[in-house]
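Lab notebook, bench 4. The sequencing result for the construct came back, and we need a structural model before the next group meeting so we can plan mutations. Quick request posted to the team channel:

Model the 3D structure of this chain.
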Amino acid sequence: MPSYSRDEVVKIQHTLARKGFDPGPVDGIWGRRTEAAVRAFQAASDLLIDGIVGPNTRKALFGDTAQPNPVDDPAFPWFQEARHLLGVREDTSSRSNPEILEWASDAGIPYGSDDIPWCGLFVAHCVAATMAREPLPTNPLGARNWMRFGAPCPPQVGAVLVFWRGSPNGWKGHVGFYAAQTPNGDFYVLGGNQSNKVSIAKIAKGRLLGARWPATAPELHSAPHIAADDGSVFSTDEA
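Done. Here's the predicted structure in token form:
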């Protein structure tokens, strides 16, 4: 994960601690204790209590309205958790990566082995670990079930993107987070189970089924985040 994102969270944690709101360890990781400290600060400051460091909360904390790059914005804690996990791999032997199994255990999701497609589990972990009040879809291991998550939104940084896999009319799918898109509109997706790891993959825009935004997060309709096409091949089968 790029250092700016971690530094931004550290800045929030330091400021909360100085103001008497305990965020837990000042470690640059957006967890439930940091979210609880933000909520306590918002309650004391007569702000909307949503646990998100949006424009009004940033102004109250720091005395300014400067916004970070959306990719680095701690107002998207689920996305920052996803970035923090870049590089985590499944165990391709007969064993499983215990970290992936722990995601399932923490979220209360039955899951036996990382041989089972885990793109939905990855998204569920990132949401559940950072947004305690956000409902997960029924059977979050099913990628297409994420079409019932939150609310529809335009594709934007942090949005949950749901894709068909195999056939548009079939049952197979893939789910991950919007990181950017090419000038042609194809997506760079931060997701799990992409080449057996958490990575950023390029996925053709024609495979998109929909984009969803967490119900408990502020509704944001930001402009597309355009990145140059890196010339990489399209991901076609993420299982």
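The first helix runs from residue 3 to 18.
Will bring this to the meeting.
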